[in-house]
């Protein structure tokens, strides 16, 4: 087996064969309903007689056979103008005296240009050259193993064919195909059959139906393509619109998230301020508590408050009693002497310096938190201000206490 051989796949013959095989499976009545058989009127002229036959579905019927001198356009018209011959094709079938059919054996390499190969050597195969005849070829058999093919050479002289065509035209017959009696065409496959009729003698067919059919096919193709692509295009447009909406929503969402983060930050700062404010009692309350704890025989010369720390300097007959009173108060914690207590020898009073941490009573803290939540950011934080208070003693005053701020 030669695997290097070129394989020539003929699509049209395969499709025709496949169609015939499929049509064979369809019932005859159904096949006849959808398929109209090809009708043909065959003209067989000779030097003496003119015979006209009608062929359909492989059945032949002789319509007329008369002498040549008796044939006229009226007699022929009376025969071929019947209604059943309306769509029939006209085939001029040459006799063996008017045409030649010869079998040739050619190499398989000449399959694609058989007519050209035969035309070069026509004078070797026949007594004529290519300028004297009308010829055609038909591949009858292909032997791929031996790489050769059997070709039927069909020819007739130009004079003979032109004369027969003029005779048919004179009788009102428009010849569409020309074949040879010894090698007739298959009527059912007339579109794929050979013909000896040259192009300049063939009937020019109008292209209007073909153009209409081609336009309809193109329109159908466009509509089919549109029906496939239009939903995809509409879906693509919808996706683009949704994508634009999503982009806008994402921008708005980012802006909302930014605002939300800012609000949360402000809330945290507000809560921090509230916590700082509610962590310590108001300065007025501290001063009020301190004034209540100071005895009439004691006074302050210096008071400083900063960052929750309170520094006191003053004189008292019993500084230890003042220390005990401050420790007992809920506003003060870690009360102690910042320096040793000294006694004035002239007056007998003790000079003290006390440090303490400011604390907030539980009840006061609860009230302050509720008040802070109502006022939010309107209240002032006591830690942001540092109070430096100096108190000087005026011994000549009647009550013994004078406070200078």
Assigned CATH architecture of the largest domain: 2-Layer Sandwich
Helices and strands, in order, run as HHEEEHEEHHEEHEHHEEHEEEHE
CATH class of the largest domain: Alpha Beta
Strand content: 15-25%
Mean pLDDT over the full residue set: 80
Assign an overall shape: rod-shaped
Decide which structural class fits the backbone.
alpha+beta
Number of strands: 14
Distance between the termini: 126 Å
Kindly identify the CATH topology of the largest domain. Nucleotidyltransferase, domain 5
Unreliable residue stretches: 376-405
- Helical content stands at 25-40%
Total separate domains: 3
Would you give an account of this structure?
By secondary structure, this protein is α+β, with helices and mostly antiparallel strands. The protein folds into 3 domains: 11-203, 2-Layer Sandwich (Nucleotidyltransferase, domain 5); 213-256; 283-390, 2-Layer Sandwich (Gyrase A, domain 2), CATH 3.30.1360. The chain is 40% helix and 25% strand. The chain has helices spanning 11-24, 28-34, 73-80, 114-120, 122-125, 158-170, 208-279, 283-293, 319-328, 362-375; strands at residues 39-45, 49-56, 59-67, 89-94, 99-107, 133-143, 148-157, 177-180, 299-306, 309-316, 332-337, 342-343, 350-358, 387-390. Strands 9, 10, 11, 12, 13 and 14 form a 6-stranded antiparallel sheet that branches. Helix 7 (208-279) runs antiparallel to helix 10 (362-375). The longest helix is centred in the middle third of the chain and has 72 residues, at 208-279. It starts with 10 loop residues before the first helix and ends in a 15-residue tail after the last strand.
């Amino acid at each position: 087996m030669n695997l290097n051989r070129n394989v020539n796949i003929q699509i049209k013959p395969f499709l025709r064969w496949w169609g015939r095989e499929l049509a064979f499976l369809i019932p005859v009545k159904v096949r006849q309903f959808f398929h109209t058989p090809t009708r043909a009127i065959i003209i067989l002229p000779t030097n003496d007689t003119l015979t006209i036959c009608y062929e359909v579905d492989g059945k032949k019927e002789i319509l007329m056979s008369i002498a040549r001198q008796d044939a006229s356009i009226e007699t022929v018209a009376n025969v071929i103008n019947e209604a059943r011959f309306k769509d029939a094709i006209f085939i001029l079938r040459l006799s063996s005296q008017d045409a030649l059919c010869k079998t040739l054996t050619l190499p398989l390499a000449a399959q694609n240009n058989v007519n050209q190969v035969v035309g070069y050597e026509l004078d070797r195969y026949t007594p004529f050259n290519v300028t004297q005849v009308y010829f055609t070829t038909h591949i009858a058999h292909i032997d791929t193993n031996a790489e050769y093919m059997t070709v039927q050479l069909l020819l007739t002289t130009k004079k003979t064919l032109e004369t027969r065509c003029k005779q048919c035209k004179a009788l009102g017959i428009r010849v569409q195909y020309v074949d040879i009696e010894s090698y007739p065409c298959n009527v059912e496959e007339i579109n794929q059959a050979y013909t000896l009729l040259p192009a300049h003698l063939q009937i020019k067919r109008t292209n209007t139906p073909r153009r209409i059919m081609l336009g309809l096919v193109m329109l159908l193709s466009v509509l089919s393509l549109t029906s496939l692509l239009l939903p995809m295009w509409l879906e693509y447009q919808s996706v683009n619109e949704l994508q634009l909406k999503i982009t806008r929503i994402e921008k708005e969402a980012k802006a909302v998230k930014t605002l939300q983060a800012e609000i949360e930050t402000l809330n945290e700062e507000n809560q921090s301020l509230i916590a700082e404010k509610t962590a310590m009692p108001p300065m007025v309350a501290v001063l009020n508590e301190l004034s209540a704890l100071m005895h009439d025989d004691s006074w302050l010369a210096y008071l400083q408050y900063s960052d929750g720390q309170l520094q006191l300097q003053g004189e008292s007959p019993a500084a230890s009693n003042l220390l005990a009173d401050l420790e007992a108060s809920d506003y003060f914690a870690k009360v102690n002497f910042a320096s040793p207590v000294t006694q004035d020898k002239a007056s007998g009073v003790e000079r003290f310096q006390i440090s303490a941490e400011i604390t907030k009573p539980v009840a006061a803290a609860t009230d302050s938190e509720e008040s802070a939540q109502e006022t939010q950011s309107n209240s002032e934080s006591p830690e942001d201000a540092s109070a430096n208070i100096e108190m000087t003693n005026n011994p000549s005053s009647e009550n013994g206490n004078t406070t200078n701020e």
